[in-house]
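Hello,

Our lab assistant flagged a job as stuck in the queue for most of the afternoon. It eventually completed. Since we weren't sure the result was trustworthy after the delay, we are filing this so someone can double-check. Below is the sequence as submitted and the structure that was eventually returned. Let us know if re-running is recommended.
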Amino acid sequence: MSRELQYPGKYEIDFLQIQSSTGDSVDLRKSAIEINLFENIFSNALSGSIIFADTNDIVTNFPIIGQEFVNMKIRFPSDEDISIDMIFSVYKVGFKREVSKGGNLIELSLVTPETVRNNRVRVSKSYTDTIDRIVSSVLQDKIYINTTKNRYIEKTQGIRRIVSPNYHPYDLIKTLSTEAKSHISGNPFFLFFETTEGLHFRSL
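-- returned structure --
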């Protein structure tokens, strides 16, 4: 029997857990009401939110202080076996709304861990290489972004000599995107963005 998507937004949650910096965790599969993920080719980061029903006041008791991780695996029922398996960082509690005695609706705002790390580190280094290799180096370097995600980096023309004057890694990559030219087509319009599939540095 074919397993097809019958309507927009249909999905199955295989795993959904919030984990604190101390290692404590709470399963949110049964309490999750809404999950939103936002992709934008003009944004460096994949972001999202979760709305869930809270009857145990985990915001206070867990507690949620903005250093938690949300691990999720979402499967879309189809013959193509499409799924999203990702980790997000919680950066704020969007809202807390009482809906019944002892029960609240909680929204957690999410962003990828690479984005959080980007805001904490800076690049002070000189490079002499092609732009695509510089971008790849910044993303993989353990001192900077240190990502293990899939990277889709288009090959660029020419060798560049640059000095990063204490830029955040994503600011440096954004600057490089204005100078890059595609090795294949010569297209000078590059974008740096993130999707559920990974990080992209590509020409239009």
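-- support follow-up --
The delay was a queue issue, not a problem with the job. The result is valid. The CA atoms of residues 139 and 145 lie 5 Å apart. The mean pLDDT is 90.
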